[in-house]
């Protein structure tokens, strides 16, 4: 039980250590924030999902990029479509909740929800993300 509890606590402890280090040193810890990519069928769905994400305070900002062409395999067949891409800026600690929420409202059977940690950036912008997205 102690091992399981320790493993469950690790992300929480890591998050607290990173927050403490950032507060004490005033420096940005690489990976504290992330950008998530979410594909959508059309602009209306993209706007609806973006607004839902913002209403839940799961992001500081969501960009809606214009149509792009996509080629992909689906059920063994090569498909081609146009998609709208959302770029979601948030805390890395919110990615799991963001992914679960988007899957619950997205019309795709398997929506693309992937994220990358933010390594560097404008310190004032990163601080703004921090202030805009509530802690866990």
Automatic annotation (TrEMBL):
Keyword annotations from UniProtKB, A to Z: Signal
Claim: Signal is one of the keywords in the record: yes
GO biological process: response to metal ion
Endpoints of the signal sequence: 1-15
A molecular-function term among this protein's GO annotations: copper ion binding
Highest rank taxon of the organism: Eukaryota
Complex formation: Homotrimer.
Record family assignment: Belongs to the CutA family.
Listed name of the protein: CUTA protein
Species this protein is from: Ramphastos sulfuratus
Taxonomic lineage: Eukaryota, Metazoa, Chordata, Craniata, Vertebrata
């Amino acid at each position: 039980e102690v091992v399981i509890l320790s493993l469950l606590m690790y992300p929480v402890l890591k998050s607290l250590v990173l927050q403490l280090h950032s507060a004490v040193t005033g420096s940005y810890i690489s990976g504290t924030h992330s950008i998530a990519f979410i594909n959508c069928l059309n602009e209306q769905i993209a706007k609806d999902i973006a607004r839902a994400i913002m209403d839940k305070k799961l992001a500081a900002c969501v960009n809606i990029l214009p149509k792009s062409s996509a080629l992909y395999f689906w059920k063994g067949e090569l498909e081609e479509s146009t998609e709208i891409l959302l770029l979601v800026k948030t805390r890395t600690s919110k990615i799991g909740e963001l992914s679960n929420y988007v899957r619950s409202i997205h019309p795709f059977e398997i929506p693309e929800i992937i994220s990358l940690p933010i390594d560097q950036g404008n310190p004032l912008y990163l601080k703004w993300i921090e202030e805009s997205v509530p802690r866990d």
